[in-house]
Amino acid sequence: MWPDVARPPRGSRARTRITEILLRRAFARLPLRLRVGEEHATGYGPLLRIREPEAFHRRIGVGGLIGFGESYMAGEWEADDLVGVLTVLAAHVDELVPEPLRRLRGLWVRRRPDEQRNTVSGARDNIRRHYDLSNDLFALFLDGTMSYSSALFSAFPATPRTFAAAQRRKVDRLLDLADIGPGSRVLEIGTGWGELAVRAAARGAHVLSVTLSAEQRSLALERVRQAGVADRVRIDLSDYRQVSGSYDAVVSVEMIEAVGADYWPVYFDTLRRSLAPGGRIALQAITMPHERMLATAESHTWISKYVFPGGLIPSREALARESARAGLRIVADDGYGEHYAETLRLWRERFLDRADDVGALGFDHTFRRMWEFYLAYSEAGFRSRYLDVRQLLLTADDTTTGQEKAL
Fold first, then answer.
1. Using an 8 Å Cβ cutoff, are 83 and 379 in contact?
2. In CATH, what is the architecture of 116-406?
3. Most buried of the four, 15, 70, 376, 395, by CB within 10 Å?
4. What is the C-alpha separation between 335 and 317, in angstroms, rounded?
5. Which residues contact 82 (CB under 8 A, 6 or more apart)?
6. Is 116 within 8 Å of 259 (Cβ atoms)?
């Protein structure tokens, strides 16, 4: 099932040795303790324990960061504080490779496979690979709202008891940004498991929600029926590019990350053409620094290989550029990345607590290590401020809202 994890790739001894030398030098400059094989640990900070040095360095020498993730999946390295180790690495990502080699990045970094491009059929396949894994799997670690995006907490540290309330707070803030109330015609791009559609309908809105995940749609329809709002919510198994009609509000939560840079213009054009005069668009989006986005835009990463094929996290600059090109302007833009770090911590802890249940669903040990790494890797991105999450209000260029006047 995991051919690239089962055995290290072929690589020359010289390349493996050079990789080891470069990594030891890089790690020595970081607030990180390192233990290689049976050696004594050196340095300070969270401990990175390399159990199989030859395989670890060979994987990274051949595959870079993809190899680093696959090495964790294979059990070749460990960390008592995985998030701590990954946070250090995320905060110092530009220091791990010497500058001369960084300039030659295009020679050793793999390009994204063409089959991951988000054409209409490609996007359907990419979404299914992640979101159609199993509703039961996601239910094991998500809160009761089945929200798979950042919550908005009222206090830290967050607790499981306050998790669902924090997710509803996030949804309600987006609905408020879009000014959704009785009679509003709402388009939601990216249904998830239906929480936003249900809460919008509870306000008296009429909602069309679109998704490419058959699994999500099935459960979302059931949740809509249970909430008693089936007469006000329609959920279509459809691509956002196939949407028609005019809406008072368009809402999309952490959907743009799955669109791909090639299709950002189409995505923002869809937002604009779907918006009725005077309407509002509320987006929630993960962002990364612009230079890092440009550096990784064409790269095949561990995340794109194993977790989110075809995805790319935009920068704030990219969001501003694409919205302006489509005749939209950003009226409000608020970030709260520390809330996503807490959200991911709660997901990860519950996922690990329910490891036996995950296994009982048919997901093997390698899958469980992959998802532990994915959740920890993502949390580290937010804790290091390499990543952020933002809620944005957009309007058409010819529209001036009361909120914009206040700003």
1. yes
2. 3-Layer(aba) Sandwich (3.40)
3. 70
4. 14
5. 372, 373, 376
6. no
Q: What are phi and psi of 112, to 5 degrees?
A: -60, 135
The three-state secondary structure class of 324 is helix
d(CA 56, CA 312): 27
Q: What is the DSSP string of 4-57?
A: HHHSPPP--HHHHHHHHHHHHHHHHTSS-EEEETTSPPEESSSEEEES-HHHHH
Task: Walk along the chain (407 residues) and give the pLDDT tens digit of each residue.
Answer: 899 999 999 989 999 999 999 999 999 999 999 999 999 999 999 999 999 999 999 999 999 999 999 999 999 999 999 999 999 999 988 777 766 655 555 555 778 889 999 999 999 999 999 999 999 999 999 999 999 999 999 999 888 999 999 999 999 999 999 999 999 999 999 999 999 999 999 999 999 999 999 999 999 999 999 999 999 999 999 999 999 999 999 999 999 999 999 999 999 999 999 999 999 999 999 999 999 999 888 889 999 999 999 999 999 999 999 999 999 999 999 999 999 999 999 999 999 999 999 999 999 999 999 999 999 999 999 999 999 999 999 999 875 444 443 34
3-state secondary structure of 182: coil
How far is residue 208's CA from residue 221's CA, in Å, rounded to a whole number? 12
Find, among 334, 347, 336, the residue nearest to 388 by Cα. Answer: 336
- In 160-213, where does DSSP find H-type helix? 160-177, 195-202
